[in-house]
């Protein structure tokens, strides 16, 4: 018989072991999907589902009809998604006939019907699609999955939805589609569904930008607003003014024109626009590193010198170079946070203002309108931050798109005056505000306060903004996701569908699921319910409950 102390020691160890095993059993069996919810993100406009489970052939074949069926965009998209869907499958049947499991797959072909052969990607391009997934009746053993769309970009959106229907089953080691048959008829609520990326405060390598664009396509976001340059750095090559990128942080943190073109091409293959921004006249101190004449003086460096024709010649040169790269019809001219003290305190600019009987506010208006004229002359539609509208709404070019950011209530005022508007209320949709929880991002409504239908139609949509002061390659994806997905569903899905009373019960489980989908696809999306965005998990647990 063991001494008392040693016996007690073994009893205690046994008790701890029992409790530990009990904990493991409980923790592993505690999470179940709510079958009443639909785990597609963003939620489609219209859909019906059933109660069948279908198997998908790992050698899934592609077929296409219609004028756009042979599009390179579509064919490459299919191959891209096939790798995602069958990540765990070798491409040959792993079914064991001796166990009585079917060796014939329910879905062996994905058929596309694309009605237009146009690949032009401009604002408002038709992104609607229908998706039908069902087991064929009768004698045929070939299952049916069909995506029909008017454009190749609608077909891409349908392909993303199809990929989310497909789930890998670890028991049979096969890809399955649950709750079939599916009939989905889908289209976006807003034409402009954006993410702003700031590469001035921190340089982001080309591959990182591509990863972000790829992840945007998973949430059906369709505009990357590229805030390329700012007062801190000027990383972009401008061949006609080669000293501008002297203001890059280092000679290795730069974008060549070929880099920029590659990003535009990469994005187009995923149905994503690139809207470039050149912010003037403020936020431009970096320009003077290569061309000091752009500064009001060597000690007072912004806004850009409004008195010199060289300033506007250079802006025109930049925009001419960028027009060769960026085909999207919208171009962002900034215009925010313009502090005019350097204009009124620098003798030659002060004299220029006096000669024209202009105040500093007049000069701000003059600069913005002249920049707009330059952009319009190059067949661009100007986008400006809301300060321009707040300061001189009656003077803005009527084609101007007002970009809200300071707070709510600006889009209602802008559309009431006939301007189009983009919603980015910083209180909800600035991703660098780490204390804004997912539910506040989700609940922000671009049409709040706008009841007139014709005025509602002037709201193009919205974008979440990833300002880069505290975000670089090490943490940018965790800061973007999953909160950007909350805005993405708000911008894509019907307003009625995203206005549920208890979003903790109806939306949160679906957002958890989508966050885990992003993780499975290699996107470093942070836990959904952290007190501060991009924080790591606070302890052990399932992805689906964090």
From TrEMBL:
Catalytic activity from the UniProt record: Hydrolysis of terminal non-reducing N-acetyl-D-hexosamine residues in N-acetyl-beta-D-hexosaminides
Keyword set includes Amino-acid biosynthesis: no
Active site, UniProt feature: 337
Keywords of the record: Glycoprotein, Glycosidase, Hydrolase, Signal
Residue span, Beta-hexosaminidase eukaryotic type N-terminal domain: 40-165
InterPro entries recorded: Beta_hexosaminidase_sua/sub (IPR025705), GH (IPR017853), Glyco_hydro_20_cat (IPR015883), Hex-like_dom2 (IPR029018), HEX_eukaryotic_N (IPR029019)
EC number: 3.2.1.52
Gene Ontology CC terms: membrane
Alphabetical list of SUPFAM superfamilies matching this protein: (Trans)glycosidases, beta-N-acetylhexosaminidase-like domain
Stretch forming the signal peptide: 1-27
Molecular function as annotated in GO: beta-N-acetylhexosaminidase activity
GO biological processes: carbohydrate metabolic process; glycosaminoglycan metabolic process
Top-level division of the source organism's lineage: Eukaryota
Entry keyword annotation includes Thylakoid: no
Pfam short name (any one): Glyco_hydro_20
Domain Glycoside hydrolase family 20 catalytic: 190-494
Family the UniProt entry places it in: Belongs to the glycosyl hydrolase 20 family.
Protein name per Swiss-Prot or TrEMBL: Beta-hexosaminidase
């Amino acid at each position: 018989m063991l001494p008392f102390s040693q016996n007690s020691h073994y009893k205690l160890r046994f008790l701890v072991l029992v409790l530990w095993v009990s904990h493991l059993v409980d923790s592993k069996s505690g999470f179940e999907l709510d079958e009443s919810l639909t785990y597609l993100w963003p939620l489609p406009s219209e859909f019906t589902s059933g109660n069948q489970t279908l198997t998908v052939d790992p050698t899934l074949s592609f077929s296409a009809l219609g004028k756009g069926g042979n599009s390179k965009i579509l064919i490459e998209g299919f191959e891209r998604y096939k790798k995602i869907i069958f990540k765990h499958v070798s491409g040959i049947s792993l079914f064991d006939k001796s166990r009585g499991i079917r060796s014939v797959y329910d879905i062996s072909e994905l058929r596309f019907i694309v009605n237009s052969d146009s690949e032009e990607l401009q604002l408002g391009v038709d992104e609607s699609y229908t998706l039908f997934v069902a087991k064929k009746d009768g004698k045929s053993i070939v299952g049916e999955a069909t995506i029909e769309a008017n454009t190749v970009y609608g077909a891409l959106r349908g392909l993303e939805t199809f990929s989310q229907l497909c789930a890998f089953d670890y028991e049979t080691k096969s890809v399955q589609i649950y709750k079939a048959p599916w009939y989905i008829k889908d289209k976006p609520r807003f034409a402009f569904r954006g993410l702003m990326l700031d590469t001035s405060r921190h340089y982001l390598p080309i591959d990182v930008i591509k990863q972000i664009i790829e992840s945007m396509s998973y949430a059906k976001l369709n505009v990357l607003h590229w805030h390329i340059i700012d007062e801190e750095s000027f990383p972009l090559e401008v061949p006609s003014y080669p000293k501008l990128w002297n203001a890059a942080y280092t000679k290795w943190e730069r974008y060549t024109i070929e880099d920029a073109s590659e990003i535009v091409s990469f994005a187009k293959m995923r149905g994503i626009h690139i809207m470039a921004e050149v912010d003037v006249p403020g936020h431009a101190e970096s320009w003077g590193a290569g061309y000091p004449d752009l500064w009001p003086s060597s000690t007072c460096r912004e806004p850009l010198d409004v008195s010199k024709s060289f300033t506007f010649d250079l802006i025109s040169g930049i925009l001419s170079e960028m027009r060769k790269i960026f085909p999207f019809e919208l171009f962002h001219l900034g215009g925010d946070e313009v502090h005019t003290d350097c204009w009124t305190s620098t003798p030659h600019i002060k004299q220029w203002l006096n000669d024209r009987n202009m105040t500093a506010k007049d000069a701000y208006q003059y600069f913005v309108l002249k920049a707009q004229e330059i952009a319009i002359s190059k067949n661009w539609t100007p986008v400006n931050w809301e300060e321009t509208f707040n300061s001189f709404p009656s003077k803005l070019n009527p084609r101007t798109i007002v970009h809200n950011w300071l707070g709510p209530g600006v889009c209602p005022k802008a559309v009431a005056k006939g301007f189009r508007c983009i919603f980015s209320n910083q209180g909800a949709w600035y991703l660098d505000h780490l204390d804004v929880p997912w539910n506040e991002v989700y609940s922000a409504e671009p049409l709040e306060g706008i009841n007139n239908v014709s005025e509602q139609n002037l709201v193009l949509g919205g974008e979440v903004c990833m300002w880069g002061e505290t975000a670089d390659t090490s943490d940018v994806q965790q800061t973007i996701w999953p909160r950007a997905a909350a805005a993405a569903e708000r911008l894509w899905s019907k307003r009625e569908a995203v206005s549920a009373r208890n979003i903790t019960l109806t939306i949160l489980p679906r957002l958890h699921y989508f966050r885990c989908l992003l993780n499975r696809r290699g996107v470093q999306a942070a836990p959904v319910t952290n007190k501060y965005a991009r924080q790591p998990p606070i302890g052990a647990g399932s992805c689906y409950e964090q």
